[in-house]
Amino acid sequence: MAGFLPSLETFAKGTLATAATLSTVGAGLLYYGQNYLIYPPHFHRDPGQVRSRRARWCGKLNYAEDVPVPSTYGLPYEDLELKTSDGITLRCYLLPQSKQLSKTHTAATPVPGEDDTTEDEFIVSRPTVVMFHGNGGNHGHRIPLAKVFYLRMRCNVLMVSYRGYGLSDGSPSEKGLQIDAQTALDYLTADPLFSQTPIILYGQSIGGAVAIDLASRNPAKITALILENTFTSIPNLVPHALPLLGPFTFLCHQKWDSASKIPSIPTTTPILMLSGVADELIPKEHMRALWEIVVQRGETKMHESSQGLERAKYLEFELGGHNDTCVQPGYWTAVADFVAALGDDNSEKAETKL
Length: 354
Description:
Blueprint lengths: L4 H34 L1 H4 L3 H12 L19 E6 L5 E7 L5 H4 L14 H7 L2 E5 L10 H10 L3 E4 L14 H17 L8 E6 L1 H12 L6 E5 L5 H8 L16 H4 L9 E6 L7 H13 L15 E6 L13 H23 L1
Parallel strand pairs: 3-4, 3-5, 5-6, 6-7, 7-8
Antiparallel strand pairs: 1-2, 2-4
Helix pairs in contact: 7-8
């Protein structure tokens, strides 16, 4: 037996050394590599190809297929360049409404009285949806979703391209994306037409965190939020997404702490939460936890409204995964009803003022 003790001691020391090494590697990976883990598309871009595509953008030509354009889906749009406060150029898509749309697109929902307005008046009469996409792909990959907002709900749509994504400059980070979102909102609130429209933020996954942060910092400028499959915070998500790195969440410098920001959003701001129960990346418990925080803000329903607009509504889709919740039955009906109720609510407020 004594002959085995040195071997056991050596094994124990070796195991501890290996564990220490793995811990060090894990800690280093999380601290220095978390931007790579959180914003992967940026690090997979070919700089030369991006520069070439930007050149074609400036020439108003169609560019590479990995950044789809709305015209491919039959949608009119504008290439919108936004300059951030720290000098980054964002290349986004803007889809302003047009009263001619119901005549040129059979899928467009007619709006009562649209023929009696000017083009500018019609834009002002419709809500504006600001779309914040998830961490995979780019804004061009969400055009099919924008199409539903644009044609079915007749919303103006601003599709934001974060720094480091699509054809936008820079490298992504929490602070950077917060600046990008603020830049998009500032553009709308400074515009003579869009500044008069209700502004709805639509965020998926990390885009939900972007939307929550923006709304918490601009409570008087945001009309409503629509959130899909987002999380309470990055540190809370790491143990599920990357179990081996769970012990090192204290090293997360990309926080996206939505749980602490929701209380700063007024109870009068309607919030629609859409959760895919089968989400394989973000456990459903995150959306449920955020919902509890939303409810705890206080008021959850609009009083004295003939339409009964719910200030906060939570829906689960049993078969909804991280990337396909938006195609589950009932998803877009819920979104359309929510947007329509906002319009009814605004009409009631206008009548009350009169």
